[in-house]
Amino acid sequence: MAAATKRQSRTQRKARGGARGGFETLKSEEIFTEAKDLMPGGVSSPVRAFKSVGGNPVVFDRVKGAYAWDVDGNQYVDYVGTWGPAIIGHADDKVLKALSTQMEKGTSFGAPCALENELAKMVIDAVPSVEMVRFTNSGTEACMGMLRLVRAFTKRDVVVKFEGCYHGHGDAFLVQAGSGVATLGLPDSPGVPKGATTSTLCAEYNNLESVEELLKNNEVAAVILEPVVGNSGFIPPTKEFLVGLRELTTKYGALLVFDEVMTGFRIAYGGAQEHFGVTPDVTTMGKVIGGGLPVGAYGGRKDIMEMVAPAGPMYQAGTLSGNPLAMTAGIETLKRLKEPGSYEYLDKITGKLINGILDAAKEHGHQVCGGHISGMFGFFFCEGPVTCFADATKSDTEKFAKWHRMMLQKGIYLAPSQYEAGFTSLAHTEEDIDRTIAAAKEVFAAL
Ligand SMILES: Cc1ncc(COP(=O)(O)O)c(C=O)c1O
C-alpha cells in the first residue's frame, strides 16, 4: 500500500475507532495489507478474508477459552472456534499440558504409535457406523480418501451429493449444482477438469424425490451429505430425510456417507448419526477429533475399510497422518467432551443464544430465522424456513454484512459469511451469551 493511502486509511480507522469508543484495528490493517502481497488474498483459506461481508478481517494474536484477542488488543467472544474444533474452548489447559509432554517425545514419528490406537478406539466406541478408521491431516483429505473408497468398494463411479454441501476442495466435490432438482455436475472452479466432476450428481437437500430420481437412473456408488448442513449456513435435515436416504441407498445398492467433519463430536458425542439414530456405511470426520491440530479421518464398516491399503488395494497415504501431537490433542478433547453434561450444557447455552438473537431481530422488525442443535447454530436474514441451499440464497446478505461488522465492533466474533454455521464451546459462559444478546439488541436497533 502506498504510504499516503496507508496514512489515509489509518486516519479513517482512528476516527471511526474514536467514535466507537476505542475499537481500533490499525495493526490488523497493517498486517493484512502486507499479507495480501505475500499470500493470495492475504489468507491461507478464503473465507478468512471477510470477502462476503466486506471490510478487512481482524488479525488474531491469541485465543483462550471462549475468547480471541486481535493484534490491536481487542477482545472478542468467539463463535467461530477455529471453524469448529475449539469445542472445549481454545487452548484448554489439559490439552496444552498433554501436548507439551508429548512434544518432549517428538512431534512426528512416521511410524506406528500407541496414541493412534487410543484415538481410534475412542472414535470407534463413539460413532455408531465406525468399526475401523484411517487418520488423515484434514477433512478434505478424509473426504478424498472416502470418495476413492466408496468407488473402489462398489465398483461404481457415480456419486450423489447435495447442493450447498461442502466436502473439502477435492476436484470431484467442487460442483455447481444449478437450480434444477437434479443437475449434472459442472466444475465450480477453474482448474477442475470437466472429467473430474462428470460422475458427481447433485440433489436437493431434504428432498428425497430428487435423490431417488438420480439413484433410479444411475449406478450410484454413494450418496454423500452433511447430515446437518453447516456450509450453506445452518440447515438441519428432517429425520424422515435421513431415514429415507438410508432406505433408498440400501434399495439401490449405494453406500450412505455422512460427512461429519463438522458435526462429528459436535452435535452429539456420536455425531449426527447418534443424534438422529440413522447409521451410514461410511463417515468422514475432522475438526473436533484433532482438538485444534490438523486431523481428519474416515471410517466405516470393517468390510469396507479393509479395502484401504495396506489391508486392501485402495491406495491412500500421508506423511504426517496420525502424528502424535494431533492424536494427543484429539484424545484430550474427547476425554473432556465425554464428561457428563457436556452436550446438555452446549445445547442450553446455544439455545439461549439463538433465541436471544432471533427475539432481538423480531423486536426491531428484522426478518431473521435460525436454529441450533447442541453447540452448532446458524441464522439467515430472511423469513424462512430454510430447508435447502436455494432457500438460503434468499437471505439479505447485505444486511447480514452490516450486522456482522457492527457485532465485531462490539466484541462479538461471528463467522464472516451468511453461509457459515456458528459454534459455541464448553468455555462460553451464560454471561458471554448475555453480552452477545445485549450487543445483538443494540445492533438490530441501529440496523
Ligand atoms: C462438512 C465438511 N467436510 C469437509 C470439510 C473440509 O475440511 P478441512 O477444511 O479440514 O479440509 C469441511 C470444512 O469445513 C466441512 O465442513
End-to-end distance? 32 Å
The distinct bound ligands, ions and cofactors come out as: pyridoxal-5'-phosphate
- Placed side by side, the strands forming the largest sheet appear as 4-13-12-11-10-5-9-7
Query: What is the percent of helical residues?
Result: 40-55%
Number of helix segments?
Answer: 15
Q: Given the C-alpha coordinates, what overall shape results? A: globular
Report low-confidence residues grouped into runs of 5 or more.
1-20, 177-183
Structural class: alpha/beta
Q: Largest sheet, described in full?
A: 8 strands, mixed
In round numbers, the mean pLDDT is 93
**Beta-strand fraction estimate:** 15-25%
Give the beta-strand count: 17
Radius of gyration: 22 Å
Model description:
- Residues 7-17 have a biased composition (Basic residues).
- Helices cover 40% and strands 15% of the residues.
- It has helices at 3-19, 26-38, 93-105, 114-126, 139-154, 194-197, 208-217, 239-251, 271-276, 302-305, 324-338, 342-363, 389-392, 397-409, 430-446, and strands at 60-64, 67-70, 75-78, 132-136, 158-162, 175-176, 183-184, 186-187, 200-203, 220-225, 255-259, 282-286, 296-300, 369-373, 376-380, 412-413, 422-423.
- The chain has an eight-stranded mixed β-sheet, with helices on both faces.
- A hairpin with a 2-residue loop joins β1 (60-64) and β2.
- α4 runs parallel beside α11 (324-338).
- The model is unreliable at 1-20 and 177-183 (pLDDT under 50).
- Bound molecules: pyridoxal-5'-phosphate.
